[in-house]
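Subject line: Sequence and fold of a protein, written as structure tokens
Body of memo: The sequence and its backbone structure tokens, given next.
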Amino acid sequence: MTWKVEQTMYLPKHFSKEDEADALRIADSNSLATVISVDRENMPFVNHLPLIVEKDELGLKLIGHMSRANPQWRHFANGSDATVIFHGPQAYITPSWYKSGRDVPTWNYAVVHISGRVRLVESHDALVDILRKSTEKFEANNQIPWHFSLPDDLANPELLASAIVGFDLRVEVLKSKFKLSQNRSPADRQAILAGLKAQDDDMSQHLSVLMEEQFFTATSRRSKITQS
């Protein structure tokens, strides 16, 4: 018997993002994911784990690991599916930014939901490979990157397996929601961009960049269609 996490998300059409590349970019740049599975009694279990997106001959998959003390891996051993959420940039949007000022507050954000069957990684070499890839990805931006190496005790396959569990998730469903004020007028969107850029927090700045990219892409596509 297997247990599934049914993926449900309120997703108005104008906020749905069908461009897989944009969705994967959010996942790749926001690696700490929310991992949701259910146990035998259909009780949800939620963890937060850094995951890496990979592509192979079979398609997309996520790879990662967790502490063996974390009971969630037992769900995966029983053939469970999981839903994973990658959280992109997000920020509060005040109505004072709109030209009219007569509106209500909202929140803009980008999220990616991925669902699929999880497989435990059994071999020592494959587990070490997950650790190496994780280290290389997350150390890449450091001025002096730490080079991957296992402590002597964890180089022993049995000891490493007793400490952590590796896994991969084969992507079966990918849905992304980019709520970026697509339902507002161009003038309001420009005002929101200006408001976000004036904030002094990184998240608002990241969101403003994402909004600019999405609006520019949409405008560019419409222009090409009109000219053809």
Residues 219-228 have pLDDT under 50 and may be disordered. The chain is about 35% helix and 30% strand.
